[in-house]
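re: ur question from yesterday

yeah so i grabbed the chain u mentioned. its 274 aa long if i counted rite. heres the sequnce exactly as i have it in my notes:
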Amino acid sequence: MNRKINTYLQKIAPFGVLLFALFLFCHGRPFCMYYPDKKIYATPSDINLRYEPVLFRAEDGIKLTGWWIPTNNARGVVLFSHGNAGNISRMLESIKILNKLKLNVLVYDYRGYGESEGEPSEQGTYMDAKAAWFYLVNERKISERKIIIFGYSLGGSISAWLARENTPAILIIEASFTSLADVANEHYFWFPGKLIFGDTYNTYQNLKDVKCPVLIIHSKDDELTPFSQGKKLFDTANEPKEMIVITGSHNTGFLESKQEYEAGLNAFISKHLK
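ran it thru and got these C-alpha cells back, copy pasting raw so excuse formatting
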C-alpha cells in the first residue's frame, strides 16, 4: 500500500510543483511583470541636448519624475512612455531623433522606475501617464491638438489607453503587443496566459476606441513582440492610420532602420499635426 501511495505521489508531484509555481506567479505578478531600474545612467546633456528635470504627482499622490527636452521652433510635443525594462535614461537615442524632427519631448518614469516613487502596477502606470498628460496641458499650457502620444513596447499599451481617454493630435505605437497574455502565449504555447494575465495591458481593446490618427511601427525581426501582433494592432486601429515596417531587433530596430524610421515618422507627423 505504501509503495502504491509513493508511486502516486511521484506521478502527481510535477503537477503540484506547476500549480504552486502558478500560484506564486499570480500572487507575485507585479514582481515578475516589471523590470524597473532605479539608476539614471545618462541625461540629455550627455548627447548635447538642453533639458529640464520635471516633477509632478499622480492622482494618488505618487511623485513622478521626468525630463522636458525643448527644441527650437518646435511644431509639437511628444509625450513619450518608455518600455518595461530600464528607465528614461535608456531612451536617449529616441529622444535625439524626436528632437531632430523639431518636437519638444516630455519623457517620464513610471512609479518605481528611475527616481519616481512607488511600485509599478497596471493601474498605476495608467495614472502616471494621465499625470504626465495633465502636466503638459495644465502646467505647460500646451494645446491637446499639439500633443503626440508616443509609446514604445509596454509604453505602447499605456499610450493606447491614454489616447482612448483623451484627444491627442496623433498616437504612435512602436514595438508593442496586443495584450500581455498574447505575448506570454506566443513564447510559451503551454502557458495559460489568459488565466494568469487576464486582460492586463490589452492594447488591442483600447486601440479600438482611439479616434485620432494612429501610426504603428513594428519590426519584422522583433524577437519579443511578434510582428503579427503589430499587424493586428494596425488592422484594428481606426482610420486615418499607417504602418511603418522596419527590420532589426526589438530594442534596436529603429536604429538599424534609421533612415526609413525617421522618414516615416516625419511624413506621418507632417501630414497630421496641424
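noticed a couple things. The chain has two domains: 1-33, 36-272. also Residues 1-33 form one domain.
anyway ttyl
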